[in-house]
């Protein structure tokens, strides 16, 4: 009998079956002792389950359910591009967040996020300056390209900033000033006003215009609005004056900020540079210097006139020693008085051209008569055409020889053109005027007199020589003429204490309540206005553009100072302590 044994060693049934030895195995073959048969109840059950699953999977695959289930539980990849709404340009550096993963877009506005969970996901997009955005998308296994996502710029919250820009000296409005706040700008109007919209994070505002120092101010946002920023700009202007230090006098300059004074002349020890007189275009300065050591007829070291240009180059001008009563005619020519020493003293009125270096004595009578300049009695018309002066000669040579004869008829006012032509005597006068000046017209010369306590005013026509008595003129003109003559400083070579502007306004020095200050009045003598409240004013000088006025003072201790004030008002600002009262606006 043969046993059938199962591999799992469970109890088995024993089947007895006769088997012929030689029929089955052949002659001479060895018979096996046991045979293993792979068959059991357990494997039958497993086989059945496998068959069922295979059939179910096939049905699901056929119906698509298995495909969906497979993708649901697999990783997804997201690809998307972000663009700007208005321009459709790609946006870089956009932060994109899906579940717990995030990344930023590249320069093309594209991002690729991998290993994302499948299913419906919220995808957020964030970029500074743009409204954030969130979308919902169904993600599947594999790549999930999305349509372009559009971001819209966040409207800036802005606040109004406004103010007025004025000149710190004259207090006048400054138009056309560029006002810059971050990437925004505005320009002031004719009244100096500006307004613009500013973000809350901006902290600085800058004001700039040619001819003024740039100014910057800090912004302050309070209660959802900016405080008004009113700017006062300082003009970029220089002034020149003389100052004595360590026993010598030199020329110095400073600006309207008065931060420091700079020496202009060489400062050579033992010599002095003084009396700066600025050309009408404010580009060149005449001054007197004894630097060359030349001596006059008496053996004393004399002064000559030198010219300093805008670059600082100094050149000699006329060789005449000790010129005085110097006035610029225009930007190239100046006139001065030169004393010729001979058998008797006589003065010459000389015009010097700085371009041609030509020296011309103007007017024949000037070769025979003394010129009375003690009270500043030389005046130049604003165009530089006419020169007026008073001659006080009491004895002259009738034939221009040294023989002296009485000729009192030569006393009087004279005018001559700056080229030496059209000399005219304006009349025989026993008394010289206290003050003379040309208003805006070359056709009129004003003469103011104070004789025996009586005030009078005359006008003269330089081209005809005719004189007219204006004693009925308004009191203000006769009054300030007297005050001017009382306050003239004879050491000032360009003393101009009454100035008429191009608009007809008069600027003058007057004493009221024991205080000497600067005043203005219109051409009719009305609307008087006090410009300074210093009390010791001695001399004034108006800038070429007529915006600013330099004011020289001298107190009872002979201490002098230089101030600047607007020609129409403002607060006088002290610029420097000075010596003498010669000063002007410098290059």
Q: Mind sketching the topology for me?
A:
Blueprint lengths: L2 E3 L15 H5 L8 E3 L4 H23 L1 H8 L3 E9 L10 E4 L2 E4 L5 E7 L2 E8 L6 E7 L2 E4 L3 E3 L6 E10 L10 E4 L2 E4 L5 E7 L4 E5 L6 E4 L2 E2 L2 E2 L4 E3 L4 E8 L2 E8 L6 E2 L9 E6 L6 E5 L14 E5 L5 E3 L7 E5 L4 E9 L3 E9 L4 E4 L16 E3 L5 E6 L3 E2 L8 E2 L5 E6 L6 E5 L6 E3 L7 E7 L2 E7 L6 E3 L5 H13 L10 E3 L5 E7 L2 E7 L7 E2 L6 E6 L5 E7 L5 E7 L2 E10 L4 E4 L1
Parallel strand pairs: 1-2, 3-9, 3-10, 11-19
Antiparallel strand pairs: 3-6, 4-5, 4-7, 7-8, 11-14, 12-13, 12-15, 15-16, 17-18, 20-21, 20-49, 21-22, 23-24, 24-25, 25-26, 27-28, 28-29, 29-30, 31-32, 32-35, 33-34, 35-36, 37-38, 38-39, 39-40, 41-42, 42-43, 43-44, 45-46, 46-47, 47-48
Structure notes:
By secondary structure, the protein is mainly β. Among the domains are: 1-39, no CATH class; 74-151, Immunoglobulin-like; 158-233, Sandwich (Immunoglobulin-like), CATH 2.60.40. Helix content is 8%, strand content 43%. It contains four helices and 49 strands. The strands form 14 sheets. Strands 3, 6, 9 and 10 form a four-stranded mixed beta sheet that branches. The protein has a four-stranded antiparallel beta sheet with strand order 5-4-7-8, with no helix packed on it. It has a four-stranded antiparallel beta sheet with strand order 13-12-15-16, with no helix packed on it. Strand 31 (378-380) and strand 32 form a beta hairpin. It is elongated. The N and C termini lie far apart (141 Å). The relative contact order is 0.07. Residues 1-26, 33-38, 364-369, 394-408 and 478-496 have low confidence and may be disordered.
């Amino acid at each position: 009998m043969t046993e059938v044994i199962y591999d799992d060693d469970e109890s088995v049934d024993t089947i007895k079956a006769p088997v012929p030895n030689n029929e089955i195995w052949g002659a001479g073959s060895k018979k096996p002792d046991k045979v293993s048969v792979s068959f059991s109840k357990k494997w039958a059950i497993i086989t059945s389950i496998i068959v069922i699953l295979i059939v179910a999977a096939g049905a699901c695959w056929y119906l698509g359910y298995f495909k969906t289930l497979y993708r649901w539980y697999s990783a997804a990849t997201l690809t998307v591009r972000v663009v700007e709404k208005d321009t459709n340009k790609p946006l870089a550096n956009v932060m994109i967040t899906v579940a717990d993963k995030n990344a930023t877009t590249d320069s093309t506005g594209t991002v690729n996020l991998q290993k994302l969970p499948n299913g419906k996901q919220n995808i957020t997009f964030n970029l500074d300056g743009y409204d954030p955005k969130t979308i919902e998308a169904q993600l599947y296994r594999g790549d999930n390209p999305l349509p372009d996502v559009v971001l819209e710029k966040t409207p800036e919250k802005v606040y109004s900033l406004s103010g007025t820009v004025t000149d710190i000296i004259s207090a006048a409005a400054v138009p056309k000033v560029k006002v810059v706040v971050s990437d925004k700008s505005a320009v002031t109007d004719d009244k100096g006003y500006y307004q613009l919209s500013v973000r809350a994070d901006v902290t600085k505002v800058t004001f700039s215009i040619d001819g003024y120092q740039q100014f910057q101010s800090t912004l302050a946002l309070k209660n959802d609005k900016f405080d008004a920023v009113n700017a006062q700009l300082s003009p970029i202007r220089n002034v020149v004056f003389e100052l004595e230090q360590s026993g010598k006098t030199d020329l110095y300059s400073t600006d309207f900020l008065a931060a420091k004074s700079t020496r202009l002349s060489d400062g050579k020890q033992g010599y002095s540079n003084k009396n700066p007189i600025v050309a009408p275009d404010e580009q060149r300065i005449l001054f007197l210097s004894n630097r060359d050591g030349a001596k006059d007829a008496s053996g004393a070291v004399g002064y000559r006139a030198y010219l300093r240009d805008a670059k600082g180059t100094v050149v000699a001008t006329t060789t005449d020693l000790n010129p005085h009563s110097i006035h610029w005619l225009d930007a190239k020519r100046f006139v001065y008085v030169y004393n010729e020493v001979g058998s008797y003293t006589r003065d010459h009125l000389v015009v010097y051209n700085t371009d041609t270096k030509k020296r011309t004595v103007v007017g024949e009578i000037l070769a025979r008569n003394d010129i009375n300049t003690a009270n500043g009695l030389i005046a130049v018309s604003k165009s530089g055409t006419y020169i007026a002066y008073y001659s006080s000669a009491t004895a002259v040579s009738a034939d221009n020889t040294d023989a002296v004869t009485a000729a009192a008829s030569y006393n009087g006012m004279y005018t001559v053109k700056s080229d030496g032509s059209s000399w005219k005597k304006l009349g025989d006068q026993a008394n010289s005027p206290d003050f003379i000046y040309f208003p805006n017209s070359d056709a009129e010369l004003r003469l103011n007199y104070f004789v025996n306590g009586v005030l009078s005013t005359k006008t003269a026509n330089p081209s005809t020589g005719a004189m007219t008595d204006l004693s009925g003129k308004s009191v203000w003109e006769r009054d300030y003429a007297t005050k001017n003559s009382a306050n003239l400083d004879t050491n000032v070579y360009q003393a101009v204490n009454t100035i008429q502007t191009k608009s007809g306004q008069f600027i003058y020095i007057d004493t009221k309540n024991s205080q000497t200050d600067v005043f203005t009045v219109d051409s009719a003598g009305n609307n008087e206005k006090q410009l300074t409240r210093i009390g010791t004013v001695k001399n004034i000088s108006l800038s070429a553009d007529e915006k600013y006025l330099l004011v020289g003072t001298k107190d009872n201790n002979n201490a002098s100072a230089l101030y600047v004030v607007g020609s129409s008002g403002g607060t006088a600002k002290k610029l420097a302590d000075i010596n003498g009262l010669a000063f002007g606006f410098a290059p």
